[in-house]
Amino acid sequence: MSTRADLRSLFLFEALEDEQLAWVAAHADEVDVAAGDDIVTEGDPSGCFYVLLSGTLAMSRIIGGDPVETTRTDHRGVYFGAVQFYLDDESARTYPASVRAITDCCVLALPATEFAAVFQQWFPMAVHLLEGMILGLRKGGQITAERERLLALGKLSAGLTHELNNPAAAAGRAADALRDKVTGMRNKLAMIADGHIAGPQLHKLVLAQDEFVKKVRHAPSLSPIETSDREDELGDWLDGAGIPGGWDLAPVFVAGGLEVSDLDAVRTASDPAVLEGAIRWLAYTVETESLLREITDATSRISDLVLAAKQYSQMDRAPHRFVDVHEGLDATLVMFGRKLGDEGGVEIVKDYDRTLPAIPVYSAELNQVWTNIIDNAIDAMDGAGTLTVRTARDDERVLVEIADTGPGIPPEVRQRIFEPFFTTKGVGKGTGLGLDVSYRVVVSRHHGDIAVHSVPGNTRFQVRLPITEVLA
């Protein structure tokens, strides 16, 4: 057992009173540890507060399922183990890290429970200050993290509102135009009836109308040159048939996938006296069907956005389950639609390995990770560049890589990007918690790993997640 003189030579105990030092000497044990042996193991009940007397030890934590060394020291007097013994808190009841002897070591072991009781008697004000500081930092971190999530939700809500507004407005415009076209079609039908068209001819026109509708539903996509050539052909045909305003009607028929041969069939089926009325009636039919298709496309787009929002939030699903990682990635990309693709200046490249198995995750939390990384990538590219999302298998883990063509992350910044509250954005534009939250979700919550590799024009965030469920 250490003498009082030995204990007072340690910086931790040098200011203790004789009575206090006597208590430490009476309750502490000197423990010899052979090289290679574990002194404490991360996650085990925190029974002792340890002080290094001699030798070299290494501290490590489990990250991504593997032990990662965080500290190695031979400094006499360093302490480890139940370092928060003075807290009556769940987090203080297990060892926060593992410590292994690198060489033969001698350590001083103090029972945490007994030491906490006398420590509170010796230094009541210090205990209050320490408790307040630790719990305050923890509470502040939780509040700021919630604020970070709300800010991200606000951004996504604005984007989703914009995305929903476009198809909704398109459907509204198409519905208004459809009302006018239906009215015009009724008028043209009345004109045909006034022409005393024969029953067999009217039947042929109705059949022609059905054929026109089918063609509109399967109208091919044409290049500008092909469109112009077909409009010229149909315009010439309409002029030759004596129908005025042919250049207004030709684009309608071309957009519906119709050709000269289709109009020839109409002329064969109708009397010359009612040909113009028949053509205009069928033009209204084509426009009506085109508007219906536009409404259908718009409402389908709204449904897809709502589905993507549900997949993103996972609001109707269990928090932890086996999922296809691509579902969350695609849903998150939809949320950023206004900044990506046709409307934004960022091109999306998807390189998915669709053979990947479903993996056990907390879907909503993982989607927050994708949100943070993609949002930072878009900001880094300043709205113009290429965003690449790649998935692959990496041994017994799934790799998700999100890359951007921005200016890159300097080495001095790259070392700190996962630190809480560290941000390179301007005041009011970032809390510095997005990547900290991502790190904790991936590493602590999912027992995975997150890393970043960056050079100008190629910044890649790599997230690795276990394929099989890892027990905490």
Automatic annotation (TrEMBL):
Domain of life per record: Bacteria
Entry-linked InterPro entries: cNMP-bd_dom, HATPase_dom, His_kinase_dom
Ranges for domain Histidine kinase: 287-469
Pfam short name (any one): HATPase_c
Span of domain Cyclic nucleotide-binding: 12-119
Stated name of the protein: Cyclic nucleotide-binding domain-containing protein
Species annotation: Pseudonocardia abyssalis
Lineage: Bacteria, Bacillati, Actinomycetota, Actinomycetes, Pseudonocardiales
